[in-house]
Specification:
Largest sheet: 5 strands, antiparallel
Distance between the termini: 31 Å
Pfam families: Cupin_2 (PF07883)
Radius of gyration: 13 Å
Protein name: Cupin domain-containing protein
CATH topology: Jelly Rolls
Helix content: under 10%
Shape: globular
InterPro entries: Cupin_2, RmlC-like_jellyroll, RmlC_Cupin_sf
Length: about 90
């Protein structure tokens, strides 16, 4: 998995954004973030499998999903080509 910051964390706006590439067969599991964190995942190319609380969802290029990231989640590429996504992570204001 390759993760490149697209927009670094901005305290005033409360988010950061990454470009993530997953090679064929790659699986990345994420521990829950802090309460109130929301992720917005947009598939740029390929097909992404995204698990939220153990339930898998399949997203094609051009599709997106927003979810509460304060629960276990995972990203998987079961295809034969690299998957590229944009992942915007929004943190609650304290």
């Amino acid at each position: 998995m390759r993760v490149v910051p697209l927009f670094p964390y901005d305290r005033q706006l409360g988010f950061d954004m990454f470009v993530i590439d997953l090679a064929p067969g790659a699986l990345s599991e994420s521990s829950p973030h802090e309460p109130g964190v929301i992720e917005h995942v947009i598939v740029i190319s390929g097909r992404l499998e995204l698990a939220i609380d153990g339930e898998w969802h399949s997203l094609a290029a051009g599709e997106a999903m927003r979810f509460q990231a304060d629960r276990p989640h995972a990203y998987r590429n079961a295809g034969s080509q690299t998957v590229r996504i944009h992942d915007l992570i929004h943190y609650p204001q304290s």
